[in-house]
Automatic annotation (TrEMBL):
Pfam families, per the entry: NAD_binding_10 (PF13460)
Domain NAD(P)-binding: 7-118
Gene3D superfamilies according to UniProt: NAD(P)-binding Rossmann-like Domain (3.40.50.720)
UniProt-recorded name of the protein: YbjT
Domain of life, per lineage: Archaea
Gene Ontology MF terms: protein-containing complex binding
Coiled coil spans: none
Amino acid sequence: MNVLVTGATGFVGRRLVPALLDAGHEVCVLVRDRSSYDLDLDVDIYEGDLLEQGSFESALAGVDAAYYLVHSMGSSGDFEERDRQAARHFRAAASAAGVGRVIYLGGLGPSEEKEGVSAHLRSRQEVGRLLGDGTYDLTTLRAAVIVGEGSASFELIDQLTGRLPVMLAPKWVRTRCQPIAIDDVIAYLVGVLDAPETAGTTFEIGGPEVMTYQEMLQRTAEIAGRSVYIIPVPVLTPTLSSHWLTFVTDVPTSVAKPLIAGLKTPVVVENDRIREFVDIEPTSFETAVRRAFSSESSPSSPPVEATG
C-alpha cells in the first residue's frame, strides 16, 4: 500500500517507518521541519503542520492508509485544544483525499466522559472520537505505558530509579498498569494494516504482565542493578508531584504533570481480541526494559516524546 506516517520524527513514528518499509509498503512521511527527519530511508518527505490548513494536504494525495501519531502534550498553550484542531484538520483532509484507512495510536483507559479521567487520557480519547467521524475506516489501538528508549513515561521511570534511592511517591503509584514493549506496539501497528478485518475497530493492546507503577519502578531499578525504596504518601498532589519531578528528572513539567495525573486511573487491557487478527509473541517487561537500556529496539536515539 501507499502509506503516510504523521508524527514520523517521534518515538513511535521513527520505528514504524522502517517496519512498514520492511513489510513491503511504500511510505511517505509528514513532518513539521524537513531537516528534523534524519533517518536514511527510501521515503518521500512532506513538510507541513496539521494545525495549519493548506500546509499538509498534498501529503495525502494517492495515499491508501495513513497513521495518525500526533500528540501536542508538552507544547506551549492548551495541548487539548491543539490536539482537537489537528484531528479535525486531518480528518477533513484525509476524507477529501479519499484515504481508505486511518490507524490511530491512542491511550488505554476509561472513556473521556468518566469523572476523574486525566487531561492526557481525555485528549487521547477525544482525538479518537474526532478521527472516527471521517469517511475512511479508522482503526484505533489503545496502549498504556510504552517501554522503550525515548518514551516519556519510561524516561520518568528510568531517571527516578537512577537518581532517587529513596522516593516519596503519590499513593497512586499502587494503581495497576499494563505496560507494552515498543517492539510489540510496532508489530501491532504494522499488523492491522495487513488485516482488513481490523478496519473500523478499536483494540486494546498491552504486554503480558499487569503491575502497579510502584512495581514498574522497582523492577526497572532491579534490572538496572539499582536499589530503590518507595514510600507512597497521600500529600503529593499531581501538581506538587510534577513540580518535584522537574528537579530530579529531565522531563519538563508540561509533560510530567499530565502523566502524573494519569496515575490515578487503572490502565489494563480488558479485551485482547486483537490477537485474533495480529498474532505476536508478547515481549516480557524485563526484556523490554533491557532493550530500552541497550537501545536494541531503536534505529537511533530519538528525543523524549510524550507518547504513551
